[in-house]
Design goal:
With 98 residues, this protein is an all-beta fold. It has one domain: Jelly Rolls (Sandwich), CATH 2.60.120. 0% of the residues lie in helices and 47% in strands. It has no helices and 6 strands. The protein has strands at residues 4-14, 25-31, 34-38, 44-46, 51-54, 60-75. Strands 1, 2, 3, 4, 5 and 6 form a 6-stranded antiparallel sheet that branches. 16% of the residues are buried.
Length: 98
């Protein structure tokens, strides 16, 4: 959508600490509970249909209960692990068919 991806992801446990220097990151919880740890402030806990935007340049780490489903909206070029060293949690976008 206009050079943005709408991503549906499953979060299980702790993600990596990372930041996106050139874009905000929008999280919308579809199912489950997601905590977003943010550098310099108290963690934010989101329930179903709660939304949170992490501003660009802010170090953060999503933490989800098993099976938490989250909708992300971010520019198509964004790597999910941001500035963190690529690793096991770095993923490519997969298109859904159907």
């Amino acid at each position: 959508m206009n050079d943005y991806d709408v991503k549906l992801v499953k979060v299980e446990g702790e993600f990596v600490w990372h930041r996106h220097d050139d874009t905000d990151e929008l999280f919308l919880v579809i199912d489950g509970e997601l905590t977003i740890e943010v550098e310099g402030r108290e963690p934010v806990t989101l329930g179903e249909l709660d939304l949170f935007v992490v501003p660009s340049g802010v170090l953060h780490r999503p933490v989800g209960q098993s099976g938490t489903r989250v909708l992300l909206i971010e520019p198509s070029h964004v790597v999910n692990t941001g500035d963190a060293e690529p690793g096991a949690l770095t993923n490519e976008v997969e298109w859904l068919e159907g």
